[in-house]
Amino acid sequence: MIIIKNLSKSYKTKFKNNLVFEKVNLSIKEGDKIALIGRNGAGKSTFLRLLGGVESCEFGQIKTNNKISWPIGSKEGFHPLLTARENVTFISKIYLGNDIKELIKKIKFVENFAEIGQFFDKPYRNISSGMKT
User: What DSSP designation does 83 have?
Assistant: First the structure.
C-alpha cells in the first residue's frame, strides 16, 4: 500500500516559484496498476522521483509498508543525481539481490569495462555523453 497525503512540489527558478503539483492525495493498494499520463512538464517524472525517494517533497507525506525504488527503463535507466557506481549498484541489486560477493564482482566488471576512471564516482549527470555510452 502506498498512501500519498497532501503532496506538494515546486522548483524555484530565477524568476518565480514553479508549482509542479499541489495537495495530491492518492492511495495505491497492493496489486493496483496505475498509469501516469500528461503533457511534457506536467510532473510525471518528478512524481516518480518523489515516490522513489530520489527527491523530497516540500509538503505532505508518502507512506508505504513496501520498498519503492527508482524505476528502471526511464530514459537511460540511470538516475542523474547518483554516481555511475551507485546506479550500477542499484541495478545490480535488482538482478543479484544482496549477495555482496556477486555485487562487488559485477560492479568491478562494469567499472573496468566502462573505462571512465574517476568519473565512475561522479554524478551521472556530470559525465559526457560518450562516457555515458
Answer: B
